[in-house]
Amino acid sequence: MERIGIVGAGAGAAAAAFALEDATAETSVTVLEKSGGLCGRAATRRRDGVVYDYGANYLKADDERVVELVTERLPTDGLVDVDAPVWTFDRDGGIEPGRDADDHKWSYERGLTQLAKRLFARTDATIHRETRVERLVRDDAAGTWTLEDAAGNPWGPYDAVVLNPPAPQAAAVLETSSWDADPRDSLVAALGDVSYRRVWTGVFHYPFELEVPYYALVNADKDHEVGWVSREECKPGHVPDGESLLVVQANREWSVANEGRDPERNLAELAAVTAGLLEDDRLTDPDWTDHQGWRYAILEDGAPSEPLRRAESAGLYCVGDWVAGEGRIHAALRSGLEVGERIGADRRR
Ligand SMILES: Cc1cc2nc3c(=O)[nH]c(=O)nc-3n(C[C@H](O)[C@H](O)[C@H](O)COP(=O)(O)OP(=O)(O)OC[C@H]3O[C@@H](n4cnc5c(N)ncnc54)[C@H](O)[C@@H]3O)c2cc1C
C-alpha cells in the first residue's frame, strides 16, 4: 500500500489524486486543506439562490487532455458553456466588440468548485479541511515524510508528498522543514522565482437585468483601474431571471494600493467605476456585495523545472499552475494529471 499525502485541495491536487487512482494499484491518499472548501482559487459561493465564481471565471478548452477529462471522464451533468462574448475596453472606457468570442469556456451550474469535487469523488482520498500544513519532516532512513499541521499534529508517514499551495506558500512550508539542506534550499530558491499578480475582486448583486450584449469586458491596454467585469447571469444556473451579478476585478496597481483599505470603501469605488464604464448609474447601488483580496491570483512567472524534478527523487512532488508555467485552471489540472501518473510510475520502479 502506497501512502500519499497531499497538501492543498486545489484543481491541481484534485487532478493528481484522480490520476493516482489509475496509476497505482494500492494507494491511500490523504489530503490536508487549510481552508473550508475545495478547488482553491477556482472558488464558488452561494447566496439567496445565486451561484457565483468569485476567483477564476471559467475553464478554457485549451488542453486536449483536460477537455477529455471534463467531457468524457467526469460526469457532464450541469457542465455549462459560457457562450456570450468577451468585449474589450480601453483606459478611457471606450468599449469595443472583441476578444475570444469563439473560445470555449465552461463552468458548472453549481460553480467551478465542482471540478475538484468531481475529481475527488472519483477517488478514495480522505480529505481533511481546515488543516494547514506548516512543515514537512523527512525520514531518510525510512524514505518517508511526515506532515505537521498548525496545531503541531503529525500526519503520515507518507511514501510520497504532493505540494499544491501557490509557490510562496509552498516555500513557507519547505523553509521550516527538516530535510537535507541541499535539495530543500535549491527548491525554495526555485519557488522564490515564481511571481503572481494580486487581484482585489468586488461582487455586486442587483435585483434587475442588464441589457448588454457581452458576458464580460476586459481592459485591453491594462491602463484602467478595473481589469475585468463579468456577468454571472451568462452562466446557466447561476443567477435567477430578473437579477444580475457582476464580478469586478481591479487591476494590479489598484489592488496593491487598496488591499488594506476598508472593503466597503473599495466596493463603493469599484461600483462607481463600473457604473461609469457601463454608463448605468443604477450600478452604484447594489442590493448586496461580496469581496475577496487574492494575494496570489494570476501567475506571472512559473518555476524552473529542474529543482522540482530533483525533489521528486525523494518523493516530494509539486503540482499547480506555477509548476505548469501558466496561470490557468486547465494548466493546474494538466500538471496534476502528469504528477499523479509520475508518482505511479516512480512507485512501481
Ligand atoms: C481572481 C482570479 C481570476 C482568475 N481567472 C481565471 C480564469 O478565468 N480562468 C482560468 O483558467 N484561471 C483563472 N485564474 C487562475 C486559476 O484560478 C488558477 O490558475 C488555478 O485555480 C490554480 O490551481 P492550483 O491547483 O494550482 O492552486 P490553488 O487553486 O491555489 O490551490 C492551492 C490550495 O492549497 C491550499 N493551501 C495553501 N497553503 C496550504 C497549507 N499550508 N496547507 C494546506 N493547504 C494549503 C489552498 O487553500 C488552496 O486550496 C484566476 C485566479 C484568480 C484568483
UniProtKB/TrEMBL annotation:
Pfam families: Amino_oxidase, NAD_binding_8
Domain of life according to the entry: Archaea
Domain Amine oxidase stretches: 109-343
GO molecular function annotation: oxidoreductase activity
Signal peptide: none
Gene3D superfamilies membership: 3.90.660.10, FAD/NAD(P)-binding domain
Descriptive protein name: FAD dependent oxidoreductase
Species name: Natronococcus jeotgali DSM 18795
InterPro entries reported in the protein's UniProt record: Amino_oxidase (IPR002937), FAD/NAD-bd_sf (IPR036188)
